[in-house]
Amino acid sequence: MNVTSSRATDPTRITADALVVPVPSPPGDLDGPLAAVDAALGGLVSSVIADGEVTGAAGQVRVLHTRGDLRASRVLLAGVGDEPDRGAWAAAGRAAARAARDAGARKVALLAPADTDRGDVRAMAEGIATGAWRLEAFRSSGATKGRRRERGISDVIVGGGALPPAGTRAVAATAEAVNLARELAETPANHMTPTILAKRAEQVARGRRALSIDVLGPRELTTLKAGALLAVAQGSAEPPRMIVMRYRPPKAVRRNREVLGLVGKAVTFDTGGISIKPAAGMEEMKMDMAGGAAVIAAMGLIADLELPTEVLAVVPSTENMPSSTAMKPGDVFTAMNGMTIEVTNTDAEGRLILADALTYCARKGATRIVDMATLTGAIVVAIGEVYAGLFGSDPTFTELVREAGDETGDLCWPMPLHPGYDPLVKSPVADLSNAAKKRQAGAVYAARFLRDFTEGRPWCHVDVAGTAMQGDHASGFGVRLAADVAARVARLT
Fold first, then answer.
1. Would 181 be classed as within a structural domain?
2. By CB count within 10 A, which of 38, 199, 373, 384 is most buried?
3. 141: pLDDT strictly greater than 90
4. At how many degrees (to 10) do helices 395-408 and 86-102 cross?
5. Which residue has better confidence, 146 or 26?
6. Residue 148 has pLDDT above 80, yes or no
7. Are residues 320 and 399 in the same domain?
C-alpha cells in the first residue's frame, strides 16, 4: 500500500479514481471540501443532502459521478456520524474503501476539512488503507472467469497537507500490519499450523534489524516445564510452538529501562478438545489465533515505527483437538511456574497456553505485560463487539491501556477483578481449576486465572473475543493498540 501526502486543498486539483470527503451528521451548512465539491458539481452535494440521500450517518457512503468536472471520476461522501470518536473515523474510512473497491478504484484520495484533528485524519486514512482488503489466496482463477478480478486499492493520498510525511509512513506501516494480522487469522487452519505461523513470524523479523526471533518447539518446552501448553498440544498431531520476538531499539533512542511484554493466544484451530464445540460455526475457530496474529503483526509495526522502548512478545501456538492422546476433563497438569491446574473443561484451553507464556514473558525480563486473546464467549455476551474487555492488576497501567484504545479506535472497556471472584478459581484437587462450576462471570474468571501467572508484574488482559472478528472476517484488532501502548510505555519515567 502506497500512502502519500498532498498539499492540495482544492478538490478540483486532486487526481484520483475516487475522492473521499467526510460528512458530519447532520451535514449543516456546507463549507470546506464539501462546499468546493458542491460548487464543482453544480450543487449536486446540496441536492442529495436536501433530498435526504446523504445524512452523514456513521457508515453511510454515497457515490457521486463527477462526469469530468473533477479530476477524480467519483466522489464518495462518507458519513462519520455525530460527535465521532477515533473508531468512527476509521469505520468511515473502511466503508468508503469498500465502496471504492466495488467501483474498481485503485487510487483513492482523502480530503477532510482543515480543522479536522490530525489523529482523526490518520484514523480515516488507515480505514481506507485497510477497508478494501480481502483474503484472495484461496480463490482459483476459474472462480473469477467472466468477471473483473478485483485488485483493491493500491494508493491512498491524504490531501490538504493534513499529515506530514512521517504520518503517511505510519499509516502505510499500520495498514500493512493490520492486514497481515487479518491474513494470519483468516487463513484456513490446514494452511496455518503452529509451524507455519512460526515461519510467518520469522518472515516478519527478517529484514528488521532491531527485531529478533526464537521459536521454541516441544523439546524446549519440555525443558522449560511448560506443562499447561503441552497439555493442550498433546491432543494434536501438529507440534506446538512458542514464538518469542524481541524488539531492541538503539541505545541512543531508548528512553527508559521498561520492557513491555506482549502475549498473544494463537490456537490455530480450536475444536474444544474432548469438551467439543457445537458443529455450527466451528469453521470460525481458525481465528482463535487472532490475539497471537495481532501481536506478531504489531511487533513488525513497532520496529517500523522505531519506537524508543524494548518490547518482548511471546505467542504460544497449538491446535486443540480431540484424540486418544488429548487431555481429559479431570486431568491435572503442572504449569511452568509450578502451579497445578485441574482441567475441568478442555474448551478453556486458551488460558492454559497463556499461563505458560505469561510466566515465560515475565521471567525473560518484561517489566509490564499486556496479553490479547479470543478468550471467552462471556465477554461477547457482556459487552458485545464494540469494546474488548480490559482487566488489569495495576490501575495506572490499566488506564494507560484504556487510553491507548481510545486513541487508536481499538476500544477497551475496564472490567472488575475484585477479590470476591477468587473462589471461582479454586479446585478441590489442585491449586487452580481452569473452568468454574458456577455459571457466572466467565470473562472475569478467565482473567483472574491468568493473573496467577504474571509473576507480580503490572499486567493487563484484553479479551478480544467480540472484537477480533467483523462478520466472517478478522478485524486486526489489537495491532494499533499494542503499538500505541508501546509508545506510551516509552514515555514512562
1. no
2. 373
3. no
4. 30
5. 26
6. no
7. yes
- Domains of the chain: total: 2
Rounded to the nearest angstrom, the gap between the alpha carbon of residue 320 and the centroid of all alpha carbons in its chain is 22
The residue to which cell 480530503 is assigned: 111
In this structure, are residues 448 and 422 in contact, taking their beta carbons and an 8 Å threshold?
yes
Whole-angstrom distance, CA of residue 250 vs CA of residue 252? 5
* Domain end (from 100, 129, 163): 163
- The mean pLDDT of 208-226, rounded to a whole number, is 97
Residue type present at position 151:
R
The model's pLDDT over 103-134, given as tens digits with 9 standing for 90+, comes to: 999 999 999 999 999 999 999 999 999 999 99
Indicate whether 373 and 414 sit together in one domain: yes
**What would the 3-class secondary structure string for the chain be?**
CEEEECCCCCHHHCCCCEEEEEEECCCCCCCHHHHHHHHHCCCHHHHHHHCCCCCCCCCCEEEEECCCCCCCCEEEEEEEECCCCHHHHHHHHHHHHHHHHHCCCCEEEECCCCCCCHHHHHHHHHHHHHHCCCCCCCCCHHHHCCCCCCCCCCEEEECCCCCCHHHHHHHHHHHHHHHHHHHHHHCCHHHCCHHHHHHHHHHHHCCCCCEEEEEECHHHHHHCCCHHHHHHHCCCCCCCEEEEEEECCCCCCCCCCCEEEEEECEEEEECCCCCCCCCCCHHHHHHCCHHHHHHHHHHHHHHHHCCCCEEEEEEEEEEECCCCCCCCCCCEEECCCCCEEECCCCCCCHHHHHHHHHHHHHHCCCCEEEEEECCCHHHHHHHCCCCEEEEECCHHHHHHHHHHHHHHCCCEEECCCCHHHHHHHCCCCCCEECCCCCCCCHHHHHHHHHHCCCCCCCEEEEECCCCCEECCEECCCCHHHHHHHHHHHHCCC
Catalytic residues: 277, 351
Q: Enter the C-alpha cell of residue 107.
A: 487510487
State the CATH number of the domain containing residue 457: 3.40.630.10
Do 235 and 361 lie in one domain? The reply is yes
The length of the chain, given as a count of residues: 493
Q: Is the same domain home to 337 and 432?
A: yes
| CB neighbour list of residue 35: distance below 8 Å, 6 or more residues apart | none
pLDDT band at 150; cut points 50, 70, 90: low
Domain range spanning residue 427? Answer: 188-490
Q: What is the pLDDT of residue 437?
A: 81
- Which region, left, alpha or beta, applies to residue 28 given φ > 0 means left and ψ of -120 to 50 means alpha? left
Q: Are residues 133 and 227 in the same domain?
A: no
Q: Rounded CA gap, 364 and 362, in Å?
A: 5
What's the pLDDT score for residue 436? 87
pLDDT band at residue 470 using 50, 70 and 90 as cut-offs = confident
